Amino acid sequence: MGMEAPHPTIRRHFVTVGRRQVHYRRAGRGPAIVLCHQSPSSSRETVPLIERLMGDFTVFALDTPGNGLSDPLALEKPSAEDYARGLADTLDALGIRHCGIFGTHTGGCTASEFARLFPERVSVFVVDGVTCWTPQERAEILANYLTPMEIQWDGSHLVWLWSRFRQQAMFFPWYKAARSARLDFDMPTPERIQHQVLDFLRAGNEYRKPYAAAFMYEGDRYLAPIKTPGYLIALELDVLYAHFDRLPPLPSHIKVERLGRDRRALLDRVVAIFKRHPPSGDTPAVVRPKPIAGRTWQDYADVRGGQLHLRRSDSGMGRPVLVQHDAASDNNVVRGATESFVDKRPVLAFDLPGNGESDNTIGHDNISCTTYAEVTRQALESMGVSACDYVGTWGSGFTGLELAKLKPGLVRNLVITHVIYHDATLRQELIAHYTPDWQPDWYGGHLLFCWHAMRDQGIFWPWYERSRKGIIRREPYVDPNMVHRRVVSMMKCGNMWSRHYGAHWRYPAQEELKRAPVPTVLAAPEGHPGTQQALGHASALASVVIGNDMSGWAGALLPRLAA
């Protein structure tokens, strides 16, 4: 398991809507079709439909606010109407005045509400799974279905989450293990459940809001008044299939279609509907996300063969600061450090290729600090950045060294935090033992492995050396929220984690640090052993003390980045 390969024709984007951002996938040419996914998922699930539609239309598959990578609506209890109005704002920002719209379950509620509220903007709406709950069903589901996820010190919240998705594949509602609630289809593979779990983790507790809006939606009340053509469709195996029987009489321009069990046939039917009711308009222009003052915002940078995800802010003045995460991680792990530079300097933080939300543009067998540096150079060039200061955490500092060598003048100052500095014997041991293979399994045991491997990094060195020899004799850094962020980022790259860590273990730090081509500072908590060893061997290097709390890093580092 690892990062999925870049899709050759589907591009990922962000659009700024007021002070929030919406993430979406885009493909094709022609008039606009808008796709809305179910909860608690993301636009990733719509890729098979995008591929069928993009030959005739420009397809926009949106992450619902609060799901995927989209910011939530600034409301405590948003309704389906609120999500539909938020969708209208998003389409305004994208320059889409007329479209066909499709939605599954939660997304279907948004799609039908959008058609009800803005009929002049819709050529046809298609809903996969209508919702017509009785008051009793609604009350029971709202009381039991939307369990909050609370991060636990021992990682047990991940076991609960995995068990929930297994249960959700067997029963509806998931909390009712009874014959009357048993579902009648094949179980998903562990890999598919892993994707579902990751989508849930991207949303966190925000998953509850669009879900609740869908459970509150009264399809039997709001569908009949819609003035635009519509199709209500569902497969036999859909838990909402029986809700067709609860619909009131509908006008002739809204069709109900009961389909069989073949998901591919449903997708083909959706394509046929949109071809029969095409929206007006030309291919919408690509819209770049607008900056949001006082905070970081998300974007993609183009590189050869794909895209790199990043967080950035343009609020500060002067030369940009690039904050780079370490192996098997992502920019969310260093977000505290990135945010600390906001309003002080322009700042950006990439997900390295094959990490986080970035495409793996360097393959599985060509991963090194040098290839990281080359892709980073491509990303900076595509953004028009000709010079920056580079703050690399752990092994990513070596990528900064390679970047400084690759293009002189691009890196003006280099900071390496928690520098990795080991002899050849330890490096070989780390390559052999630090990143054992793991795969999703049906019972979810891999999640506990990921949790304790990340947590033990703050207790033992190396993390697998669980003896007196391995005790880290400093205050342990095992904050559950930090561990959770690292576990999520680790799972995003799957078993690529061994290659990402290996790139750092194999780097000849002793030789390269001595001939660093730019002013270089080593930053770490007091007494960090790697930093002490490196300073002893490379006397030209400077050092600065920083804490585990990344929110204070800018204050400590900016004086070293002034030149």
Description:
34% of the residues lie in helices and 17% in strands. By secondary structure, the protein is of the alpha/beta class. It has an 8-stranded mixed β-sheet, sandwiched between helices. The protein has an 8-stranded mixed β-sheet with strand order 9-10-12-11-13-14-15-16. A hairpin with a 2-residue loop joins strand 1 and strand 2 (20-28).
Which terms would index this structure?
single chain; alpha/beta; Rossmann fold; 3 domains; eight-stranded mixed sheet; 16 strands
Q: What number of structural domains do the residues give?
A: 3
* Strand content range: 15-25%
Low-confidence stretches: none
Mean pLDDT: 95
Which fold name corresponds to the CATH topology of the largest domain?
Answer: Rossmann fold
In the CATH hierarchy, the architecture of the largest domain is 3-Layer(aba) Sandwich
**DSSP helical segment count:** 19
Structural class, by secondary structure, is alpha/beta
How would you name the CATH homologous superfamily of the largest domain? Alpha/Beta hydrolase fold, catalytic domain
Number of strands: 16
Q: What characterizes the major β-sheet?
A: 8 strands, mixed
Strand order of the largest sheet: 1-2-4-3-5-6-7-8
Measured distance between first and last alpha carbons: 44 Å
* CATH class descriptor of the largest domain: Alpha Beta
Kindly provide the radius of gyration, computed on alpha-carbon positions and rounded to a whole number of angstroms: 25 Å
Shape: globular
Helix content: 25-40%
